[in-house]
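re: ur question from earlier - yeah i can do the single chain one, its not a big deal. heres the input i used so u can compare w yours
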Amino acid sequence: SQSLQSIATTVAQERSLAAVLHSIVSELAAQSNAALTRIWLLDEADLCETCAAANVCPDRTRCLHLAASAGKSLREAADWSRTDGYLQRVPLNVGKVGRIGARGQSILLEDAVADRQWIVDQQWAQEEGIVSFAGHPLMFRGNNLGVLALFSRERLNQSDFQWLRAFADQAAIAIANARAFEEIERLQERLQSENRYL
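and the output i got, formated as tokens:
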């Protein structure tokens, strides 16, 4: 697989948050064992009235927003870059992604098919040849920004899991930096606007 340093360098070259998120999932999805990789970011609840998970949501103030997705489906018609599907919002503490987002604890399912309680759509997993799942919180300075998840068509071991942990740590830094950069740009634009007004 591509070295962590090489991927981190590619991601770090991006400035906007959208570009950083796209770069993270694209680089990870390009790994040979990857089927689908996704990032959910923790944010305020916003789609409660239409959310597919509303009936199991314990807290309608914050949830995980699907912010980036990339992968290679075995079905030509499937578009895994979309972020507006069934899991576009995940409640905290619900399912594997919600648990990672709420508790900041990583999850590795070496045999995802055997762990039936953790796979929402068993038919999808079988049709796509999903073997393993790994998910890590995106931690930055003690704060959980969201979740990085990987569905793999090959069995993931502890070494793969630790590599993905390091990748998630680099991704969290890139996300935090992109947010800070965008905030600085927004403040600069506001200052310039106020100066023109004065």
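The helical segments are 4-12, 17-29, 95-103, 122-127, 158-197. not sure if urs matches, ping me
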